[in-house]
Amino acid sequence: MNELFEFVTMVIPKAGIQVGALPLTLNMLLFGIAILLNLQYVVKFLFSNMYFFIAYYLLLMICLFSVFINLSDRTISTMTVAKTVVVLLSPLAGTLFYKDSADRALKIVSVASIMNGLYMVCQKIFGIINISIKGLTYTWGQDLAAKNIGYNGGDTNSLVGEANKMPSTYQNGNSVGLFLATALVLMLIWKPASKKWRKTKTVSVIFSVIGLLLCGSRSILFPMSVIGCVVMFNYLRNLSKTERARTLRFLFLFTIVVVLYFSFARTQVIGQLYNRYVTQTIANPTSNRSMIWSNALNYIFNLDNKGFVRFLLIGAPNTSISSEGMMGFMLNRGVIAQLLFLICLVVPILVLIGDRKKRIVGYGMFAVLVAFILDMSFYYLPCVMNYYIAFAIAQNYYKHPTIE
């Protein structure tokens, strides 16, 4: 069951149907079943780090109290309640990998990243809408073209249209970018025993990088680009001289092939990537977030004493103002809940960075944390789930023998 949940969560997380205002996905159903089957590990996982447990418990209590207050005031929507539940329950996904073989889980990660990257390439070539499957690659009853994938009113039936965010099966380029970032660093600590899985790992790394370029998410690509230097240094340092030479030789040849291909092939991909990551960034570095954050700060500074105390403890009335990233969470749930949520996200990073063999994963998760701060991806399944799954897999690695 755990393997099935992992595969569905990473490969087809939005497979399901829209029921009223909320989606009902296979990922949600399998998560509930898997947690019930692994209840004996929930407490063990939460108590694996006391700082995490205390922060998570307080976050749970404060958020529930905040939601109940807003419900009584009728200042909260069903969707906002659902998003809060996502934040509160998603960390428990790590429970499912607390005792299971990390090697088996990494095999699923490798296959999932290949499938996502390959599907994103197909979306780029044939069109996102043209190759979509209702109920499988996106939730039945939702409008995929209306998602945040960058169509900007373009022709959704054309081969490429104006879409600049290949969403894979995540319905959002940001979300799949976060998964591929964690998949990439997990692959770098994995040492499969068989030749077949070593080749699969290499292909997975390649498609993870391709997918990160195609996802169109600057909030994850830019942090990963900076952290990538540190990740590569640590990765190469942990290799033997022979492995290091082989890796550098492969990277050199791969770079040459890519450069030659784009030099002679008639493709618009380079121009489109340049427009997305350079031109658009120069024209609008914050994607209008600076104005949104400015409005949020003005709202906070203009609160009276009673309103400010409420904001500190349980957040502002959820109908008052909305915002992006962690600022939005802080406005909805309060300053205390915001700090506790950050602690819950930072503790896994510190734990992994403290282990030389696993710190590469910690660096990748830090890039995901930066993306969480900038956008609202943590509110949507399976982003926080994948975050804690990556943590649990990395923590559990080396504890069990390789399974072939």
TrEMBL record:
It comes from the Bacteria. The chain crosses the membrane at residues 20-39, 51-69, 75-98, 175-193, 205-236, 248-265, 335-353, 360-381. The keyword Membrane applies. Keywords: Membrane, Transmembrane, Transmembrane helix. This is Polysaccharide polymerase. It comes from Lacticaseibacillus sharpeae JCM 1186 = DSM 20505.
